Amino acid sequence: xxxxxxxxxxxxxxxxxxxxxxxxxxxxxxxxxxxxxxxxxxxxxxxxxxxxxxxxxxxxxxxxxxxxxxxxxxxxxxxxxxxxxxxxxxxxxxxxxxxxxxxxxxxxxxxxxxxxxxxxxxxxxxxxxxxxxxxxxxxxxxxxxxxxxxxxxxxxxxxxxxxxxxxxxxxxxxxxxxxxxxxxxxxxxxxxxxxxxxxxxxxxxxxxxxxxxxxxxxxxxxxxxxxxxxxxxxxxxxxxxxxxxxxxxxxxxxxxxxxxxxxxxxxxxxxxx
Length: 273
Known about the structure:
It is a single chain. This protein has 273 residues and is an alpha/beta fold. The protein has one domain (2-81, 159-272): Rossmann fold. The chain is 34% helix and 27% strand. The chain is built from ten helices and twelve strands. The protein has helices at residues 40-48, 72-79, 97-102, 115-127, 143-156, 173-190, 201-207, 225-228, 231-238, 268-272, and strands at 2-11, 14-24, 29-33, 53-60, 63-66, 82-85, 161-165, 193-197, 210-215, 218-223, 242-246, 252-256. A six-stranded mixed sheet has the order 6-7-8-3-9-10, with helices on both faces. Strands 2-1-4-5 form a four-stranded antiparallel sheet, covered by helices on one side. Strands 11-12 form a two-stranded antiparallel ribbon. A hairpin with a 2-residue loop joins strand 4 (53-60) and strand 5 (63-66). The chain starts with a strand and ends with a helix. Residues 268-273 have low confidence and may be disordered.
């Protein structure tokens, strides 16, 4: 389990994440949703230790990260429990796809990559559906192919917690489903705490066990998608009128209602928050 205890984080001198608390169960997918610029990426970076906590603490199993702790060795040890895939997946390096994936075991590699690591890297590439690209240079791939390769690298880390920032943003529908199916499979099988930022609300409702709805850096709502997703919540969070339907499994399906916005949401602040 991961516990976020009243954490705050700053970026550019501004408090972006504000006293956020949550309990994230192992073996579950926790999707972070919310408008642009509301603190979702900052939240993941703070959890990973890439940004210092301004307040509060985070625990992952028997590890704990507190506000003010920035010692290099301590942060490196903290990060050992995580696999983090940032939103920017640019990879302008002269390495093959197989070599990039093998680097997921960086902490265990020597000057020689052993057969076990290469075999596991190929397994991860097969799981990601891109084993045929193993010999290609990573820089030569399309954005979507590169995203799948870097996700295969994430799986190599075998973490306690997996942090994924918009992992399907460059993928077509087929590969979005394939990647999120694999996220769910590995999360369940390994008992990982998986925290994923998604902009597609319907994918979030389809794949997440738990939603964290972030607005202006604060936690607006949390819970199972079927329990918390309502037209009112989405309208207040995103400033758009929606209808919430149900698929055959009972998951929420969100679509624009096409109706005029309520008067209290027609301000500029309400639309762009």
